[in-house]
């Protein structure tokens, strides 16, 4: 449960430069990576692998804070094959597989993530039930799953890119397939909550956003899903459940 990597990422050169351009971000309404870094965030990490690894570690630490809450809040045993899209090294997927012995899974992420994912899944004792696939989820996602999981992925993207990503997922599944989004659902209005700070962080970083339940309903509908329910967990995260039309 260490916060070390998250603290290092929050204070990293990349984040310092992004928040240094906060006024510009608010004025333009989008990411300023090209302006302040001279390149996209992904290109920056390709040139600074040490900072990319710090980010990966930070994301793993965040996942570990919500893993238990998610696996306790939702029954994954109803599925035969679960596809974890953008699943990183598989911290959440490992916990789901260990809790659901009959379940098989596919972990899908960028090719450079795959070696670390294999190592983690093997150390967790679940690699024999999990196929690990590299690719670009804006092009396609692996077919054949009866449920598709996105944990803290959709908030990275604006509505246009998020709709494209979910539409690719919709094309990969059969009608009636299940969509599971693990995200922080922010409340409307002006009451303070951590999700609103995270919303600002998404804006200055990848250009994404946190969303309200209504916004997730609209996003799901645009991609061909009906939002079925929003399940709260013991963490800040909720599980947003959709059904493909």
Summarize the structure in words.
The chain has 245 residues and is an alpha/beta fold. Helix content is 46%, strand content 17%. It has helices spanning 4-10, 13-20, 22-28, 33-36, 41-47, 49-73, 91-99, 114-123, 159-172, 194-204, 213-222; strands at residues 81-85, 104-109, 130-134, 147-151, 178-183, 225-232, 238-244. Strands 3-2-1-4-5-7-6 form a seven-stranded mixed beta sheet, sandwiched between helices. Helix 1 (4-10) crosses helix 6 and helix 6 packs parallel to helix 7 (91-99). The protein is globular.
Sum this structure up briefly.
The protein is of the alpha/beta class and 245 residues long. It has 11 helices and 7 strands. The protein has a 7-stranded mixed beta sheet, sandwiched between helices.
The radius of gyration computed from the alpha-carbon positions, rounded to a whole number of angstroms, is 17 Å
Cα separation of the termini: 39 Å
Largest sheet: 7 strands, mixed
Determine the strand fraction and express it as a percent band.
15-25%
H/E element order: HHHHHHEHEHEEHEHHEE
């Amino acid at each position: 449960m260490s916060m070390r990597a998250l603290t290092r990422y929050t204070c990293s050169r990349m984040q310092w430069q992004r928040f240094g351009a906060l006024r510009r971000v608010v004025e333009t309404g989008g990411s300023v990576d090209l302006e302040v870094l001279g390149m996209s965030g992904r290109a920056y990490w390709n040139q600074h692998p040490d900072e990319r690894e710090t980010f990966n570690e930070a994301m793993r630490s965040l996942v570990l804070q919500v893993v238990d809450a998610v696996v306790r809040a939702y029954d994954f045993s109803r599925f035969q094959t679960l596809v974890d899209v953008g699943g990183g090294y598989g911290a959440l997927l490992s916990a789901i597989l260990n809790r659901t012995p009959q379940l098989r899974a596919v972990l899908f992420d960028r090719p450079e993530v795959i070696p670390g994912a294999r190592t983690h899944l093997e150390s967790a004792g679940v690699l024999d039930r999990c196929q690990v696939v590299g690719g670009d989820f804006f092009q396609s996602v692996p077919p054949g799953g009866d449920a598709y999981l996105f944990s803290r992925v959709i908030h990275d993207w604006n509505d246009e890119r998020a709709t494209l990503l979910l539409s690719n997922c919709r094309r990969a599944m059969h009608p009636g397939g299940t969509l599971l989004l693990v995200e922080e659902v922010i409340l409307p209005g002006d009451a303070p909550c951590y999700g609103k700070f995270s919303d600002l962080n998404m804006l200055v970083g990848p250009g994404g956003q946190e969303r309200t339940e209504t916004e997730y309903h609209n996003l799901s509908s645009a991609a061909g899903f009906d939002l079925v329910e929003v399940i709260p967990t013991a963490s800040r995260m909720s599980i947003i459940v959709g059904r493909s039309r």
